Structures are given as structure tokens and as C-alpha cells.
User: Fold ABC transporter domain-containing protein from Endozoicomonas montiporae.
Amino acid sequence: MIRIDNLKKSFGDFCAVDGITFSVEPGEVLGFLGPNGAGKSTTMKMLTGFIKPSGGTVSVFGHDIEQAPLQAKKIIGYLPEGAPAYGDMTVHQYLGFIARVRGFSGDEQQSRINRVVEQLALQAVLHRPIDNLSKGFKRRVGIAQAIIHDPQVLILDEPTDGLDPNQKHQVRELIRSLSKDKIVIISTHILEEVSAVCSRAMIIANGRVLADATPSELEARSRYHHAVTVELDTDDNVQSAIEALPGVKAVEISGSIPGRFTLIPNDDSSVFNALTGLVAANGWEVKELYVESGRLDDVFRDLTTTGDNREVAE
Ligand SMILES: Nc1ncnc2c1ncn2[C@@H]1O[C@H](COP(=O)(O)OP(=O)(O)OP(=O)(O)O)[C@@H](O)[C@H]1O
Assistant:
């Protein structure tokens, strides 16, 4: 497991990471979510031994990152922010170089290169210089070098940044498949990515952890948890009847689609039965009807734009 205790980083007078404590077990995919400048990359750089903490400790499967950096780094794969690489090398040369640095030679080296080339679909660019690749391919090369030694811990800073939707889907599938027996920590700005791949999400702002929960627990904190959206095909004036339903806290009207309403429930209420009862009693035609589990963007905004966190998020 990874155990992080009271981790801190200051740059001069500025505190970028302000005492973060958590642990992660194999099988977990932990997502760091936060506004720009929240401290996600700085935390990852300290977890991987890339920069020295100003305070606190990081232990990776029992190896302290400062006391035993080689043992810790052997079992970590790291995709740094922006996926830096040696741009004048071809993909094949670069992966060969990384494999050698990781201690592989001969057939073992080649079979490891072949495996990651296959996993990241790099065949078409294998003999091209990395500098000439598109942003998406560069990112895939970055992920390939991070997994070449089949590490127990994978730390990926914005792994899908710059990828097209198909590539995003592929990389998320890969992360999911790798995560079965590994610890995976990713940072992302993409909220849908958290629901798609993370078993746990940590919202960070101003170098502090504001929330640490499963994506569905976070969604349940949203005002849209159990909200019902309905689109009705009727000329009746339905809004006041919907607003008067028991358990309804507020009704939002869709600006662009007539007859479409979102019913926000009071805490722990369900408005679904009351709404369907009203619709049936009046014989209104339903064009669309669904219940939401909640909205992560709503929770993210709430947490990161209140109180001390306002400055960071704006
Ligand atoms: N080497 C450095 N010297 C001075 N300040 C730094 C340094 N590295 C990071 N910072 C500052 O620390 C804060 C946290 O930066 P960090 O890159 O960790 O944020 P982040 O959450 O990863 O943001 P983003 O989502 O934009 O990548 C920022 O205000 C950044 O400007």
C-alpha cells in the first residue's frame, strides 16, 4: 500500500501542498480532482520522489521515498505532467532506452517493448521521432514507458489530456484492466473520467483534501441526487402543479426545450412516484423521464468555490 502522512510542499513563502494524509490499497484507482494550481501535480511529484517534500512522509509498499528511493521507484511507473520524453529518439529507441534503464536486456527487453506497443497501439509510429508525433501519440508513448516494467504502483498525471474520444476510451479501458492488482493514481480535470475509471476520488484545492469518497458517494452530495427530469408534451400549464408536489424543493425549467423540467427533491425524498402519479392522473404524454444519481460538477463547484477555496477556483 501507499501511505502518505502530513505531506507538505512550499515554494518560498507559497504553500502548494498543505498537509495531505491518506493511504491507497492495491485494486484502487484514486483520482485527484482539483482546479488549476490545486497541488495535484506537486503531490504526485513528491509521491514519485521527483521532488523533495518540505514535510511529511511517503511510504510505498514499506519503502520510504526519501530513505529508500531506489526500492520505491522500482515499483512505481510515472507519467509526468505533459508526458516529457527525449524528442529526437524514435518511439522504439525511447522505449528501448527506458527498458534498459529499468534493467531489461535481450529478449526480455524486446518482449516488454512489444507488449506496451500493442497495449498503447503504437505500431504505426514506432520508428518516428517522438518530436514529430501528435499530442495524443506522445501521451500514449508516455503511458507506455510508465508501464514497461509492470509496476505495482502507477501514477499518471492527466493521462488522457490531448487524446481524441476513441483514444480516451482505450486508455481508460487500459487503466481499468491494469488496476486489478495495482495501485493507480491519476489526476484529471475531466469529471466524467472520475466516474468512468476511479473507484475513489479526492477533491483537492489550495493544497488540501476537501473530499475523499467514492464517485457515487460524491454524487450523492449533489442537489441533483435523485432529481427527476421530465419532458411533457402538453399544452396544460403544468409548472405550478409540479412545484406543489410533496417532496419537491425546487423546479428548474429547461431554457431551450418547452415542457421540460428538473425536479430537485428535498433531502432524502423521492419525487418520482408523486410525479408519475400526477402525469398519469392528467393523461400527459411523456417524451422523456429519468432519475439522476447526482452531478459531480455540482459537488466540485460547491466544494472548490466556497470560503477559502474561492480564489483558487476562479
Ligand atoms: N517549482 C515551482 N516553483 C514555484 N511554484 C510552483 C512550482 N511548482 C508548482 N508551483 C505552484 O504550486 C501550485 C500547485 O501547482 P500544481 O502544478 O501542483 O497544481 P495542479 O493542481 O497540478 O494544477 P494543474 O491542474 O493546473 O496542473 C501552483 O500555484 C503552482 O504555480
Notes: Residues 106-119 form the longest helix (14 residues). Residues 11, 16, 34, 36-42 surround adenosine-5'-triphosphate (CB under 6 Å).
